[in-house]
Structure formats: structure tokens, C-alpha cells
From TrEMBL:
Pfam families: Lactamase_B
Domain Metallo-beta-lactamase: 33-207
Domain of life: Bacteria
Protein name in the entry: MBL fold metallo-hydrolase
CDD domains, per the entry: metallo-hydrolase-like_MBL-fold (cd16278)
Length: 280
């Protein structure tokens, strides 16, 4: 695991304010909806995961930035928009939000994404996002859910995980070849080490409720590691009994009552586990 450098944040400054703006796109994969995060630091802000291309949601994000109804270069200034991964429920509104922010602030606003090809005009994220009072947060690479997945460790220990770790004990979908179980377990191990080291004070996922204290954050990480490892063990045991196809593995691993709405995600997770076992 790469160490997170020390913060250059002014110790006398107010903490970075985290504003959670939830999109109205609930569903089996998005839970209660995609969570967009606005980070306010004095007269500056940053946005993480603009969410879907929905006018009402983007208007709410602008309000959280303090820019609703503002035009002609008025403060606050947006230092950048970070997309944690390419999936549309996190990224589809990015280009529109960026243009709206530039129109209102009169300043260029960088769009940061690890997969630059997926978002026109995107550039590689910086290692550190800076605001008025120094460090706003450190960008952390967390591949697994997707190859381009990122997280942001906000000054003060708030960890924004995108879809690497979901709220409410839900497990993220890993769809190969973009998603990778081996890398996902490694990313969860990185988060676990950071939590044990005391660098994570709370976790704020891309979907579902946050884990509001260090113990809840560590417990959530460890539960997801245990859940994924148990799924791998279930598949290994089923294959040892001669169950080799998705049709036979699905009921053996997920039970006979798997809903039709969750079946595609379960199939993708099984494919990812089979790729993981093939490496072993």
C-alpha cells in the first residue's frame, strides 16, 4: 500500500465541510440513489461523482456549491470535479455540471477521471486536491469494482469510496473483465490498513448510508472482505462437487430464491470469482 503523505492543511482552519446530495435514482444496483459529495473549503469547493444527467440533481449540486442563481464569476470557486469511476450513475452529469460551474464562477474547472477516454475533456486526477486552506483530500486508487475506481481520503479522515464499498452492508457488483475480484480484495485490504492506522474516521459510499465512526468503518470493511472470501469458498466447494456452469452454480451459491432483478449481478459476480480462481 502506498502511504498517504502528510497534510499541508492549516491547523487553524475550519475542517472541510462534506455535503451529501443524493440523486433520485433508486434501484437494485443504486440502492437509495447515487450520492454526490460537495466538499467546501472556505471560498472554494470540489465535487465528487456528479451523478446522473438529471437537471434537478445537478441544480441541487450547484446549490450545495453555493452557486445556485450565480453567474459572472462570483465566488466560491470550484477547484475540480472528480469521478470515482466511469459508470453512468456516477459520471453522466459530469460534463454538464462542469460547464455550469465554469459559467457561474468564470474560472476553468478541471474534470478528473482515471479513465479519460470515458469522459470527454477529462484529465488524470492529481494525487492531492488543494483548497483555500491546503489539502482537501488525497486521491486513492481502488481498482476492483472497475479498473478505474478511485476513492478520496478527505482531510480529517472522511473516506469517499465510490462503489468500492457500499453502505448498508451491501456488496458491490464486480463485472469482468473491467471488474476484478483479486484487485477488489486488494483494495479492501488497503482500506482496512488505513482504518487500522487511524487514517479513516468515517466512510461515505457512492450508494447507501455512511459509516459514521472509525469502528463502524473498520467493521464494514472487514465484513465485506469476509463476505467476498466466503463467496469464493462457496464457489470452490461447489466446483469440487462437479457444479461447473453458471446455471448450476447460481442456486448453489446464492440459493434457490434469488430474485430475477438480482440475477444479472449475481452472474457477473460469479464470473469474476471464476476468473479469480483460475489465477489461483
Amino acid at each position: 500500500m502506498e502511504p498517504v503523505p502528510g497534510s499541508d492543511r492549516d491547523p487553524a482552519a475550519a475542517p472541510v465541510e462534506l455535503i451529501d446530495v443524493r440523486a433520485d435514482n433508486p434501484g437494485p444496483m443504486t440502492l437509495t440513489g447515487t450520492r454526490t459529495y460537495v466538499l467546501r473549503d472556505g471560498a472554494q469547493c470540489a465535487v465528487v461523482d456528479p451523478g446522473p444527467l438529471d437537471a434537478g440533481h445537478l441544480a441541487a449540486v450547484l446549490r450545495a456549491c453555493g452557486l445556485a442563481g450565480v453567474s459572472g464569476g462570483a465566488a466560491p470557486r470550484c477547484v475540480g470535479v472528480l469521478v470515482t469511476h466511469r459508470h453512468a450513475d456516477h459520471s453522466a452529469g459530469a460534463g454538464t455540471l462542469r460547464r455550469q460551474l465554469e459559467n457561474r464562477t468564470g474560472h476553468p474547472v478541471p474534470l478528473w477521471a482515471e479513465d479519460r477516454a470515458a469522459l470527454p475533456g477529462a484529465v488524470t486526477p492529481p494525487a492531492v486536491i488543494h483548497g483555500d486552506n491546503g489539502t482537501i483530500g488525497h486521491v486513492i486508487h481502488l481498482p476492483g469494482h472497475t479498473a478505474d475506481s478511485l476513492g478520496l481520503l478527505v482531510a480529517g479522515g472522511l473516506m469517499l469510496t465510490g462503489d468500492t464499498l457500499l453502505g448498508g452492508g451491501s456488496s458491490t457488483v464486480i463485472s469482468p473483465p473491467d471488474g476484478d475480484v483479486t484487485e477488489h480484495l486488494q483494495s479492501l485490504a488497503v482500506l482496512r490498513a488505513m482504518a487500522i492506522d487511524g487514517r479513516i474516521s468515517s466512510i461515505h459510499p457512492g450508494h447507501g448510508d455512511p459509516y459514521e465512526d472509525p469502528l463502524a468503518a473498520l467493521d464494514a470493511i472487514e465484513q465485506q472482505i469476509a463476505h467476498r472470501e466466503e463467496r469464493i469458498a462457496q464457489v470452490r466447494r461447489a466446483r469440487a462437487k462437479g457444479l461447473l456452469t453458471l446455471e448450476t452454480l447460481l442456486p448453489a451459491v446464492y440459493g434457490p430464491d434469488l430474485s430475477a432483478g438480482l440475477r444479472p449481478a449475481a452472474e457477473e459476480n460469479l464470473r469474476a470469482i471464476l476468473r479469480h480462481l483460475a489465477r489461483e
